[in-house]
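Shift notes (night). Ran Oligopeptide transport ATP-binding protein appF while the centrifuge was going.
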Amino acid sequence: MSDYLLEARNIKIHFPVYGGIFRRKVGKVYAVDGVSLKVKKSETIGLVGESGCGKTTIGRALLKLYNLTEGNVLFEGEDISRLSDKKMRPLRRNMQMIFQDPFESLDARQTIGDILEEPLIIHKFGSLQSRRKEVLNLLSRVGIPQSAVNRFPHEFSGGQRQRIGIARSIALKPKLIVCDEPVSALDVSIQSQILNLLLDLQSEMNLTYIFIAHDLAVVKHISDNIAVMYLGKIVEYADADATYENPLHPYTKALISAIPVPDPFVKNKRTILYGDVPSPLNPPSGCRFHTRCPVAFDRCRIDEPELKQVAAGSEVKEHLAACHLVNS
Ligand code: SF4
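Came back to this:
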């Protein structure tokens, strides 16, 4: 059996764009353009980058919620990239998702009990009595009083709703959870409580997380390894300590420089990235980051840098970067 719970091999997800009176295909959005990842059991990979970098698309593709244009996804060594919905169904219980917006991800017309019981019914979990007992267990596990079972989502705060979303994601005792910006919509004071809950559940249940965020500060404490993404590609990959202490790619450096320092006497030299992420419909030539990179030079506009092990890094630890300056 593979050492890895999940492997993505050079995955590409291109969405067709249609236009004109005859709705002909006029282009494509290069949402993800050649990403490889390996995730070991019980570890957390942080996927970080600004909005529009393709993080959420990858997360969904890994759960086979999107079809791949190219490449393969292996779950426990089995290639699931082209499995039919019917063949995917039994695997789905092992692969769950926590959504960014706890307001939208819970059906406002269902009680909390019904929301948590639904996946158990779909996957034919036990009798009515055992399902109800399990729903109460789930609520306790995520720190929501059992009396909430007959209440509706609108009666809870954002943080409580996210706890209920987490309870639903662990209902089937999955192996992998894709956490899609699970704390971005929450107050800073609540964010750490939710992150701690995710960490507790991970150690109790041996969960593996793909943790998506646009903010490097958020993934710092939860991730073993971090993949920094820019415009559909990974530009740097390393363990969490190396990413923070020795960032090599100019984009990672800029993201780290934007993390606020809690000490008012320490001045952080911030690298400002001007402009927005270019359109994935027409990505820049050469290095995709060259239009915003503060240290770009001529070669960057023509030659696309390869994501490879950095020469200065340790041979034992994986530290990959896609930049001509790092790998020259
Ligand atoms: Fe900047 Fe060039 Fe490195 Fe790209 S390859 S990150 S443009 S220096």
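The pocket of iron/sulfur cluster is lined by residues 249-250, 287, 289-290, 293, 295-296, 300, 305, 323-325 (CB under 6 Å). DSSP finds eleven helices and twelve strands in the chain.
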